[in-house]
Design goal:
Blueprint lengths: L2 E2 L12 E4 L13 H12 L3 E6 L5 H11 L8 E4 H11 L4 E4 L23 E4 L14 H9 L4 E3 L5 E4 L2 E4 L1 H10 L4 E3 L5 H15 L7 E5 L2 H10 L3 E5 L9 E2 L2 E2 L1 H11 L5 E3 L4
Parallel strand pairs: 1-15, 2-3, 2-11, 3-4, 5-6, 6-7, 7-10, 11-12, 12-15
Antiparallel strand pairs: 8-9, 13-14
């Protein structure tokens, strides 16, 4: 069982750099979590560097706009790295016309890039940022379209590897769920966000630019998604803090209490071993 902690300041001497997830840790897409925001502000005041690392398909400027809208205090972070930021290189490297599959709000991902957006039947590659309407659709609604793309041999660039994300008290599907189907049917996926290495390289580079040095052994990743936040950190040589009251809470909550035996069974089944766990970031 990972060590349970109740306060982030218990690990002040353990880490110089914190790589913190956003959705499910700092906010739920509708409201910020005040204790989490205050915990990160306090960490910065103690001299720790906080890099927010998120699978949002939008560049960091779009995340900041959302923070402004829902009321996340900008004093809780030093820099932000998004999956959208690191996916832009994959888009630039793609050959031919690209079909943009996602809501209009994510189109900023391709702004400033020398790419040609085309209709599905003219595409040489697909850029997926999410479902067109994640409030009413499911990933399975796209299976036929994805099967057609696979039959034509198109690579699918997934800008948000999350499968689901919290929005208020609901879970809504993300681009990662479409990428799962594409992989299942034998299609080629290209991903730079969590849990893959490019986003961690960029986050550590940002931390080094701020601090002058960045040691993974003095870094902790914080997140609530085992397949992205926790597996990504561990695969990239960084210890992790698992936030239990996030996207997986339904797996081990007994009423309002975390059943620690069920939590351990869940982590074992997922094949991850975070160093620490907390109910909430506080």
């Amino acid at each position: 069982m990972p060590r349970k902690i109740t306060d982030l300041d218990q690990l002040t001497d353990r880490a110089d750099i914190l790589l913190c997830d956003v959705w499910g840790v700092i906010h739920n897409g509708v409201n910020p979590y005040p204790l989490s925001v205050e915990a990160l502000k306090a960490a910065r005041e103690r001299g720790q560097t906080v890099i927010l690392i998120t699978n949002s398909p939008r560049p960091a400027a779009g995340v900041i706009r959302q923070f402004d809208t829902i009321g996340v205090d900008p004093a809780c972070w030093d820099d932000i790295v998004t999956s959208g930021d690191v996916t832009r290189q994959l888009v630039s490297d793609a050959q031919g016309g690209i079909y943009f599959l996602g809501p209009e709000r994510d189109i900023s991902l391709v702004e400033g890039l020398d790419v040609t957006l085309v209709e599905p039947d003219a595409a040489d590659a697909v850029l997926c940022t999410g479902l067109l309407d994640d409030e009413t659709e499911s990933a399975e609604d796209y299976r036929a379209l994805l099967t057609d793309f696979k039959a034509r041999g198109l690579p699918l660039i997934c800008a948000n590897p999350d499968r689901v994300v919290e929005r208020g008290d609901r879970l809504v599907p993300c681009a990662g769920a479409l990428a799962d189907i594409y992989t299942e049917i034998g299609g080629e996926t290209r991903i730079a966000g969590k849990p893959h290495a490019p986003i961690y390289r960029e986050a550590m580079a940002r931390a080094e630019a701020l601090r002058g040095t960045a040691d993974k052994r003095r870094t902790l990743a914080i997140g609530d998604g085992v397949a992205t936040d926790i597996r990504g950190a561990l695969d990239n040589g960084i210890d992790a803090i698992f936030i239990a009251r996030g996207v997986h809470a339904r797996e081990y909550l007994d009423g309002r209490v975390t059943n620690e035996t069920r939590l351990q069974d869940f982590l074992n089944a997922e094949g991850v071993a975070p160093a620490y766990w907390m109910e909430w970031l506080a």
